[in-house]
Design a protein that fits this description.
mainly alpha; 20 helices; globular
Length: about 425
């Protein structure tokens, strides 16, 4: 069934019969935006805001739409909202996030921090096939499945989330096309396991001095990092965005999306017609090329100081709006009951996050790096820009920007790393 065009999405017409109470796409979009607004407003409330110290905002942005969908109150009939969010907002979001990163500056922040961050990334990529192999040895049926129900396809979306974030998760979903039931289960695994791990990292923040003494860590790098961040902030203070600024940000994001769509479609067609073997590696997927090219354009633009300067007027904040709307549409398809039906997937997630922890903690120990690097480097992968600053601020509020910077690097690596992890899981599961 063809996906409706954008104007149809906004039409206030019922798309067809459904078990859900509300399926009108305009009404569902309004409900999602109200949910997001309420989450962000209550996060700033002096009393209610305490809840977010325990339950991250990102979790609620997934969880509340998931509850409404599971209860049969709302539904994204035909996936129309998700189609627009994934085809238009997702690549623009990737461009805006990656172009805002001061990648040259990050490279000057110190090799230990980047090495620990990359150890976490490698831990996710390597942990994916190892978790599949380990759980598969005990329960082969857990890691099996064929076509759209192949478990590795669903887990590819977890890899995208755990290296980059919601945008990369959506990208992997479109590239590998897991079934709706499988995707709903893996989203639940992603959220539950990732937030268990975040709780561990927040505990590390509260005990960081004692842990660093045990690790005999060299904390002088943290002092140098604080000085560098203060310098960067002084050189590019935030300012009020003008209409011209916002138009420029949108123009860059969506122009890059258009270029990526045109070039990606041509590349996918060429591979499909001349290289039949390439379909096994998703090279015939137009969406695969869309997100890869969009991310690459964003990374290239980040080396331009004028483009990077758009961060001071809110480039990443605009991208975050797109990202959270995408997250909410993903939440609509989350089956909160699926994890009880497929506990084996939960076991894979726990083993997987454990392997990642071994990689990042081993790197921290060998480099004698502060536990701060481990916690923020890991969360920048697993939680992305929405929660990495939270973990960083738990150590010291002045260090919150480090979480953002590393998380943006995670967005840049997420598409590539998740694709590699998916191919390794395919081999590990015998697919």
């Amino acid at each position: 069934m063809p996906t409706p065009a954008f104007p149809v999405l906004l039409a206030a017409t019922d798309p067809g019969p459904s078990d859900a109470l509300i399926t009108n796409p305009a009404a569902v979009l309004g409900i999602l935006l109200v949910i997001l607004a309420v989450v962000f407003q209550t996060e700033r409330h002096p009393t209610i805001g305490r809840l977010y110290r325990v339950v991250p905002a990102l979790l609620l942005c997934y969880f509340i739409p998931g509850l409404l969908s599971t209860a049969g109150i709302v539904a994204d009939e035909g996936g129309r909202l998700y189609h627009v969010a994934s085809r238009y907002l997702l690549p623009a979001c990737l461009v805006m996030l990656t172009m805002s990163a001061d990648l040259p500056g990050i490279l000057r922040l110190g090799p230990k921090m980047l090495l620990v961050f990359l150890a976490a990334t490698v831990g996710v990529v390597v942990g994916a096939p190892l978790a599949v192999l380990l759980v598969g040895t005990i329960s082969p049926e857990t890691v099996g499945g064929t076509d759209a129900d192949a478990v590795w396809r669903g887990l590819s979306t977890v890899a995208g989330s755990w290296i980059g974030g919601g945008a990369n998760q959506a990208a992997m979903r479109e590239v590998f096309q897991p079934s709706d039931d499988l995707f709903g289960a893996t989203v639940a695994v992603d959220i539950i396991v990732a937030n268990i791990w975040m709780g561990v990292l927040l505990w590390m923040a509260g005990s960081n001095a004692r842990i660093d003494r045990l690790l005999k860590a060299d904390r002088t790098a943290l002092d140098a990092l604080n000085a560098r961040l203060a310098t960067v902030e002084a050189q590019s203070p935030p300012r009020a965005a003008t209409t011209t600024d916002l138009m420029t940000i949108c123009a860059i994001g969506f122009a890059a999306t258009g270029i990526a769509s045109l070039v990606g479609g041509s590349l996918a067609g060429w591979f499909e017609s001349t290289q039949p073997w390439s379909s096994r590696f998703s090279l015939t997927s137009g969406f695969f090329w869309l997100v890869v090219i969009a991310t690459t354009i964003g990374v290239a633009l980040s080396f331009s100081k004028p483009v990077r300067g758009l961060e001071s007027v809110g480039a990443s904040r605009m991208a975050t709006v797109f990202l959270y709307l995408l997250v909410a549409t993903i939440g609509l398809e989350m089956d909160l009951l699926a994890i009880g039906e497929r506990p084996g997937l939960f076991a894979i997630g726990l083993v997987w996050i454990g392997i990642q922890a071994v990689f990042v903690l081993t790197a921290t120990f060998l480099l004698r790096a502060p536990i701060f690097f481990a916690a923020v480097g890991s969360q920048a992968n697993i939680g992305g820009a929405a929660s990495a600053p939270v973990v960083a601020a738990a150590f010291d509020p002045r260090l919150a920007p480090v979480g953002v910077l590393l998380a943006v690097v995670g967005y840049a690596l997420g598409t590539y790393g998740a694709w590699i992890a998916a191919q390794l899981m395919r081999v590990a599961s015998g697919g």
